[in-house]
TrEMBL record:
Pfam families: ALAD. Belongs to the ALAD family. Homooctamer. This is Delta-aminolevulinic acid dehydratase.
């Protein structure tokens, strides 16, 4: 019987030793909280498939934003949920300065100034009657170039409302370049672009569709990426960086850690990942059944996403995770 000379277990023996050699730590300032603002409601509304997440009123949005800032959360990503009456074929309520998303961005900026990073989703799916991320061509497909024009105006409207950064999430070809040009032309050279660069057409966005009351029929496979493909993500990220993306994002997060890792190696801009609604819902559902230790799974998943290479993480657990991190370190 021979005994090992080298014993990796030594570094795992006590909590203090483990803390000393811990390689990956998530910081609250690296978390971004997605928030939903619903038009015309007087009380926040729970979202059944996202327990703990609500559609906000204008008032409750500000309260939640303050809570996030106090917890040390690094940024806020706002989604608008318009009245059905304000949806149309082209999503014009997304461009309207009085549309719910721009109203919310203005409120947040007026309330919080530069205390946190305020971001808006640049995509028309919440604002269109058909629920697609762009305008439709005669054959029912999403018309890429006609949509670009809308995104450009939407981004400028968000900059004017007070967003520090805009987040184009519609996966139209050329969207980052067009938005960069439009922002610059309107004098918004300082407004950044968080590009949803590698966004997969998977099944993990289900609860989000409830959150924004999506009317989508069918799916987004003609514009979002096919889950088996990694190289397509590299291509998208290269294009977005060349077009002026300040931060690139991969979405979803946990099922695509290999994509995060590959992109981290490839580009010099910060890399973000979006722990999407389905990732959140799975853990909440299992925890509600007593099948998982909720807090430990939350922290483990965030740590894994960071270890893979994402230094910024969008997560519906941002506030709670920030609080847990502050207790831990
Ligand atoms: C598009 C958008 C979506 C999400 C973020 N931005 C929906 C989609 O692509 O269908 C999903 C985020 C999540 O599931 O948490 N505006």
């Amino acid at each position: 019987m021979s005994f090992p000379d080298i014993r990796p277990r030594r570094l795992r023996r006590t909590p203090a030793i483990r803390r000393l050699v811990e390689e990956t730590r998530v910081a609250p300032s690296e978390l971004i909280l997605p928030l939903f603002l619903k038009e015309g409601i007087t009380e926040p509304r729970p979202i059944s498939s996202l327990p703990g997440v609500v559609q906000h009123t204008r008032e409750s949005l500000l309260k939640a934003a303050h809570e996030a800032v106090s917890a040390g959360v690094g940024g806020l990503m706002l989604y608008g949920v318009p009245d059905n009456a304000n949806k149309d074929e082209t999503g014009s309520a997304g461009l309207d300065p009085e549309g719910i998303l721009n109203v919310g961005l203005r409120d947040l900026r007026a309330e919080l100034g530069d205390d946190t990073v305020i971001m808006g989703d640049v995509c028309v799916d919440e604002f269109t009657t058909h629920g697609h991320c762009g305008v439709l061509a005669a054959d029912g497909s999403v018309d890429n170039d006609a949509t670009l024009e809308i995104y450009a105006r939407m981004a400028v409207a968000q900059a004017e409302a007070g967003a520090h950064m805009v987040g184009p999430s519609g996966m139209m070809d050329g969207q980052v370049g067009v938005i960069r040009k439009a922002l610059d032309a309107a004098g918004h050279q300082d407004i950044g672009i968080l590009a949803y660069s590698a966004k997969y057409a998977g099944a993990f966005y289900g609860p989000f569709r409830e959150a924004v009351e999506s009317t989508l029929q069918g799916d987004r496979r003609q514009y979002q990426q096919d889950p088996p493909n990694l190289r397509d993500a590299l291509r998208e990220v290269d294009l977005d960086v060349a077009e002026g993306a300040d931060i690139v994002m991969i979405k979803p997060a946990l099922p695509y850690l290999d994509v995060i890792a590959a992109i981290r190696e490839r580009v010099a801009v910060p890399v973000a990942a979006y722990q999407v609604s389905g990732e959140y819902a799975m853990v909440e559902a299992a925890a509600a059944n007593g099948w998982l230790d909720r807090e430990r799974v939350i922290m483990e998943s965030l740590t894994s996403i960071k270890r893979a290479g994402a230094q910024i993480i969008l997560t519906y657990w941002a506030v709670e995770a920030a609080q847990l991190l502050r207790e831990r370190y």
